[in-house]
Amino acid sequence: MSPSLLTLSEVSAVFCLLLILLVPFASVGLALINSGLGRARSAAHAMLAALCVTAVAALVYVIVGFAWQGAAGRPEHVLVVAGKAWGWVAAERFFLRGLRLDLSPAALVVLLQMFSVGLSALIPLSSGADRWRLGAICASTALLAGCTYPLFANWVWGGGWLAQLGANCGLGRGFVDGGGSSTIQVVGGVTALSITWILGPRRGKFTAEGMPAALPGHNVVLVLLGCMFAWIGWMALNSAGAMLFLGVEPGRVVLVAVNTTLCAAASGLTAAVVTRVRSGRPDASLSANGWIAGLVASSAAAAFFKPAAAMIVGGVAGILVVSVADFLEFRLAVDDAGGAVSVHAVGGLWGVLAVALLADAGPAGQWLAQLTGIATLLGFLLPLTYGLNWLLDRVYRQRVERGGELQGMDLFELGAGAYPEFDVHGDEFLQR
Amino acid sequence: MKIAGLLLLVSGWAIVVAAVALLPSAGARVGFVLAGMAVELFGLALAVRAHLVLSAEGE
Predict the structure, then answer these.
(1) Which of these CATH numbers, 3.40.50.620, 1.10.287.3610, 1.10.10.10, 1.10.3430.10, describes A10-414?
(2) A331 CB contacts (<8 Å, ≥6 apart)?
(3) Which residues in chain B are closer than 8 Å to A375, comparing Cβ atoms?
(4) Which of A313, B11, B18, B34 would you call most buried, defined as having the most Cβ atoms within 10 angstroms of its Cβ?
């Protein structure tokens, strides 16, 4: 049994379309953040990579992605287990054939997903900063947009088995994630973790004793400007997602926008306070990461939180992002330049869990549905993503040659730097 | 060691999915879901540990 397709009045559909058209601001925000947190000598490469990722993601998603993902109430392959039908992959046609691109909910889902899959694919860029080849970035994006993202999105948004947990097993409303804390953010976050494992740390990041060196981002103004753009995009993303995937009426979009803002505000301020207490001054980069982590955590259930609960969700996200970023760098030797794992993977998992803990009480068993979703992300998505990227690395090496890291990705891969009239620092400040 | 960790992750997920789909009683379902997640956490720890060992060897 597949959940039935949503129906929208024409006014609601136009309103939803306008919201969806604002979603690319989230991608603009992440692209600016990724570029700002990287080195000056790789800044143009980071922005071009963001553009290529967005392009590859949109093309691959339209060619094959939607065929696997589908939308609730549309054709689905099912497995019958213990007398119950479970959807596991959509049965749509490639190149969107058989789908009318008008104001129907399925067409709006396609448009939103074209932007969302690009947003998800932008996340690993920051973890592979300054050492990930452009060709490998595009190939890895194709794997995400054509395989991992649509598969998991089908299970959550396309009427697949996670969405059916409520109807088939009595577990609350089934797995709930309106704005993509799991489908967009954690999928991007576990890809980022896989990429850091496969690429290894940047040259000079860790000393022989294993101590991490600080490699500060080259332009924190870009990072903070990116936060502002991301805020606009995220309010639209959470609102459109709530309308299309949770069936929320347009009037509730006000609550979604309020909760999204409160969550980001609480998270950004908490991160600033934590870094201020820890080191005497607020850290701009980590505060920005806190802001984004709040947006990420808000996505799952911004339509169901009370405003006070949204502040709690944001506050916890702010503490988590600072603690986990330190833990990953100092204890686990993970060189995640932009904090993609702590912001998107951990923030997203917290957002999914917060649905069960803090959202307005729904039917019993919701927490078990959320735990099943988290188990799927860690137990299925992470090994699948790592395996696919490991295989890609075997046939097409993902890390740039040593010369590329020394010279900078701009000159090595693009032949020109982002700031030709300025001195670009080498590695002279690194510990030897 | 990393492959063992990843296999444990998948095994834990299989336990969770089987428990949710096949077990009728709520108590048993909760128990097996938590057990499956514990197996996943063990697998994740193993994969992380493998990464640490590989990093140290690289240096």
Answers:
(1) 1.10.3430.10
(2) none
(3) 12-13, 16-17, 33, 36-37, 40
(4) A313
Quick check: A55 and A141 in contact, CB under 8 A?
no
A376/B17 touch (CB, cutoff 8 Å), yes or no? yes
Task: With CA atoms as reference, report the closest residue to A375 among A197, A245, A186.
Answer: A186
Among candidates B14, B16, B59 on the partner chain, residue whose Cβ is nearest the Cβ of A372 = B16
Judge whether A18 and A228 are in contact, CB under 8 Å: no
Give the integer Cα–Cα distance in Å for A62 and A240: 20
Torsion over CA: A12, A18, A24, A25 (sign) = negative
pLDDT tens digits, A325-365: 999 999 998 999 999 999 999 999 999 999 999 987 567 78
- From first CA to last CA, the distance across chain B in angstroms is 19
Every domain of chain B and the residues it spans: 2-58
Nearest CA in chain A to B59: A208
Distance separating alpha carbons of residues A231 and A317, to the nearest angstrom: 16
Question: Residue A374 and residue B37: Cβ atoms within 8 Å?
Answer: yes
Query: Domain extents for chain A?
Result: 10-414
Tell me the per-residue pLDDT of B6-34, one tens digit each, with 9 for 90 and over. 999 999 999 999 999 999 888 999 999 99
Least confident of A61-65, A230-234, B47-51: B47-51
pLDDT in tens, A311-331: 999 999 999 999 999 999 999
Query: Mean pLDDT throughout A29-54?
Result: 96
- Please judge whether B37 and A375 are an interchain contact, meaning their C-beta atoms are less than 8 angstroms apart: yes
Query: Using beta carbons and an 8 Å cutoff, which residues of A are at the interface with B?
Result: 81-82, 84, 86, 165, 169, 171, 197, 200-201, 206, 208, 210, 332-334, 365, 368, 371-372, 374-376, 378-380, 382-383, 386-387
Which of A109-118, A217-226, A330-339 is predicted least confidently? A330-339
Chain A CB contacts of B7 below 8 Å: 383
How far does the CA of residue B16 sit from the closest CA of chain A (Å)? 7
Select the residue of B6, B40, B59 nearest A208 (Cβ to Cβ).
B59
High-pLDDT (> 70) share of chain A, %: 96
